[in-house]
Amino acid sequence: MARAVELSSMSPETKTFRVGCVITDKDGKELATGFTGEKEGFHAEEIAISKLEGRRAETEGGSIFSTVEPCHPRKSGKTSCTSHILTLKLARVSMCSMSRRLSSRARALKRCVPTD
Ligand SMILES: [Zn+2]
Fold first, then answer.
1. Residue 7 has what pLDDT?
2. What's the CA-to-centroid distance between 108 and ligand 1, angstroms?
């Protein structure tokens, strides 16, 4: 998570949310990273996941670390980061803080927790 926090500090200070994200394999090896503002119009998690193209299988049993609760749902109508995350076969979703937006609070968390 320290790496995700470090990445979040690379986000422009003008952004409402300054999010850092790291995806690792099952052994903790860093596979991809993203941060707010790295690619305009995309969330940190989306950016990191986009960097996995052709290597998504390496995420099986791995983890994603995001400094803020991944979005879900998304006001713009675009696919939420939570939905993108659930397309991976990660063993763990870790976040530093919950969303400040009441509309999405804990929805991502509830979707990521196995219910069976
Ligand atoms: Zn998002």
1. 95
2. 10
